[in-house]
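Morning - aspartic acid inputs below, output right after.
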Amino acid sequence: MKKVVKFGGSSLANAEQFKKVKAIIEADEKRAYIVVSAPGKRNSQDHKITDLLLMSYQLSSHSLSFDEVYNLVESRYKDIKQDLNLSVDIESVLNEVKENIQKGASKDYVASRGEYMNALLLSDYLGLPMIDAAEIIKFDENGKFDYKTTEDLVGEKLKDVDKAVIPGFYGSNEHGQIVTFSRGGSDVTGSIIANGIDASLYENWTDVSGFLIADPKIEPEAKPIGLVTYKELRELSYMGAPVLHEEAIFPVRKKGISIQIRNTNDPEAEGTFIVHDDWEKIKHGTITGISGKKGFTVISVEKTLMNEEKGFIRKLISIFESNNISIEHIPSSIDSISVIVSDSQLQDKQNKIKEEIKIYCKPDSVNIYPGMALLTVVGRGMIKTKGMSAKIFTALYESGVNIRMISQGSSELNIIVGIENRDFEKAVKAIYRAFN
Ligand code: ASP
């Protein structure tokens, strides 16, 4: 069975990286469909090609010259071509894209050219055909991904193509116009191709050796996660910074295809396996990861006999809905309920919300407490294991962290605690050390 391999922007940022990619592909015959991102940063001061293209689009749409920015795009592709001695006529493609930008091409078209041109170079370098994603990845007229049509097209088009390079991040609609996924979307393309060909594995090559149990900026000793289930990853990525695009899980999850996150700069490392949810190997008493975010506000509403008043919660929730605020958590007790929302959602609507709650819900009191962080401890090894929460809360108590909220997901896969923003780093460290 074949594997789908996706290389991120930093894995294809220059000729040196292209060489590593070639060695990886040639080391395993099963690596058949190669999905590529646009060239990323070569160092921390550098620019991503997608950002430069979007900047060119922006300047041009305001009738400003974008030559200077576009020159950076051109020289990056030309350097790779020259350093690898390639023959593909990338110059003509670069000129065509430039002309199209001048003529007012769409934002999605412009953004997608980073992947398109990188795929042209890699296909030449590997001596493999390139299949344009516009032919196989389809979107409907509202810009929504068309799963069924795409699945059929991928199966059909790749049936007779043994190996190929495919640009990530975009597809097209029924009028042939280019449509992109959200940023980082090449991960999604890889997952769609893996689903479409029933791949044995989806390898996602990036510049880190998989996920770590905790953010290394907080806990420098954090060990890698060897294996995580899709569900666990959802719980982790929901609050932390994702290595993988959030939507990349869904296509492969449908068929139970595993994803392996690997490091182009350290191909010997095993990285992290993301596997189906009923994976047997559970190490009881362990956690898989810790993640979280600062910047939440608690809106606490008290009303005696609240639980007997029909429609009370509905009224409360509808206030948030009508103010276009999504809710993170709703812990409650017999006479009180708290609504937790992120500060970015709440913005400056605090007073308006408070007034509306007073008018519609007639509570005894409404209080707003800003400055909260949410932290989630995730682990399939926590299920039906005694003492897990005791360990977490003891660690927090011993490091002097004040807990303001506790919630356990109904699948027993995670425990969420609300703490003060200022205690966040201390809490992550304390929990990590309690289990490692
Ligand atoms: N090049 C696009 C971006 O920078 C998509 C990707 O890299 O996956 O967001």
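Note: Residues 9, 37-38, 48, 50, 114, 168-169, 183-187 surround aspartic acid (CB under 6 Å).

O.
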